[in-house]
Amino acid sequence: MRTLNQKIQWAIDLMREFEPDNGYVLAFSGGKDSVVLYHLACLAGVKFQAVYMPIEVEPPENYTFIKQHFPDVVWHYPARSFWQVMLKAKRLPDHRFRWCTTHFKLRPMRRLYRNRIRLVGERAEESKARASRPAVYHTANGISVRPLLWFTTDDIIAVTEREGLPVNPAYGGDLRRRMSCVTCVFQRKTTLLYSMDRWGDLFTDMAYMVVFYLYPHRADYLKARGYLTPTEYMSAYYLKLTPPRWARFKATHDLDADPIVLRVRQFIRRAQNGHQNPLEKPRFGNLQRL
Ligand code: SF4
């Protein structure tokens, strides 16, 4: 078992060992792991360029945090908005068709930084898949180096506090929370409820897309699968319930008491009552481009 200082030294040695002549590309998100990764890359003294690929559905605080604390990060704005891509995909992103990651993260990284060696903030603790890969590995996107592989959440918090690193306000003071896109379906239930309460406007954008585009487009198919209304479709989506499980859930639960269903109903109502079409909203809340 390594101590925190040993893990830091291991990360620094790894980055130095694999440093390419043209420097690393550091995949930066504004989350706690990428802030620590950025800091350790500075301590290692390796050459790197941090890059960030924003999506409209991230916490708005993330944009200002990165601009304020990491002004040298290069931003790659997507050509199309999250809502435009959703319209084309004709469905919400899920584990079968995770079009958001492919379109907004993987493809641009591959296109812009083909054959570059990347520093990524993945940690073994996060998932079995991440734990199963070595610290340096080849992907379709090139070579990835993972200096934080052995860091636990406690380690990340300890480094953040000890080194006085900036903390993204999107965490709401709780660094144990995982930060992702606000509307992401892969969040834990407690984080999802937190996101729904804090960034309801983005969920209302999502509800708008469901009510006016996605559900009408596949209404017959969705009804046949038991999602009888846009509210049912969006609730089952966030409860991660397949058609048979959604049917069981409806039969055995009081929908009027379920916190996710109640919030979805509210978003749908707002979407139907004068909410602005997200396809017509200014990109990234009128954020001035650097
Ligand atoms: S965090 Fe969730 S919504 Fe955002 S790109 Fe990843 S999978 Fe998609």
Write the layout of secondary structure elements.
Blueprint lengths: L3 H14 L6 E4 L4 H13 L3 E5 L7 H10 L4 E2 L6 H8 L9 H14 L5 E2 L8 H5 L3 E4 L2 E4 L7 H10 L26 H10 L1 H18 L1 H6 L5 H10 L3 H10 L6 H14 L18
Parallel strand pairs: 1-2, 1-4, 2-3, 4-6
Antiparallel strand pairs: 5-6
Helix pairs in contact: 1-2, 2-7, 4-5, 9-11, 9-13, 11-13
The chain binds iron/sulfur cluster.
Iron/sulfur cluster (SF4) binds next to helix 5.
What would your notes on this structure say?
It is elongated, with a radius of gyration of 20 Å. The chain folds into two domains: 4-171, HUPs (Rossmann fold); 189-281, no CATH class. A six-stranded mixed sheet has the order 3-2-1-4-6-5, with helices on one face. Helix 4 packs across helix 5 (99-112). Helices cover 49% and strands 7% of the residues. The N and C termini lie far apart (43 Å). The chain contains 13 helices and six strands. It has 290 residues and is α/β, with parallel strands linked by helices. The structure holds iron/sulfur cluster. The site of iron/sulfur cluster (SF4) has 10 residues, from helix 5.
Write a short abstract of this structure.
The chain has 290 residues and is α/β, with parallel strands linked by helices.
Q: How would you state the average pLDDT, rounded?
A: 93
Secondary-structure-derived class: alpha/beta
Count of domain modules: 2
CATH-scheme architecture of the largest domain: 3-Layer(aba) Sandwich
What does the oligomeric state look like here? single chain
Shape: elongated
CATH fold topology of the largest domain: Rossmann fold
CATH hierarchy, class of the largest domain: Alpha Beta
Q: Span between N and C termini?
A: 43 Å
Total strands: the figure is 6
By CATH, the superfamily of the largest domain comes out as HUPs
| Helix and strand run | HEHEHEHHEHEEHHHHHHH
Which parts are unreliable, with pLDDT below 50 for 5 consecutive residues or more?
none
Largest pleated sheet: 6 strands, mixed
Helix content: 40-55%
Q: What proportion of the residues form beta strands (DSSP E)?
A: 5-15%
Q: Nearest-angstrom radius of gyration?
A: 20 Å
Bound molecules: iron/sulfur cluster
Number of helical segments? Answer: 13
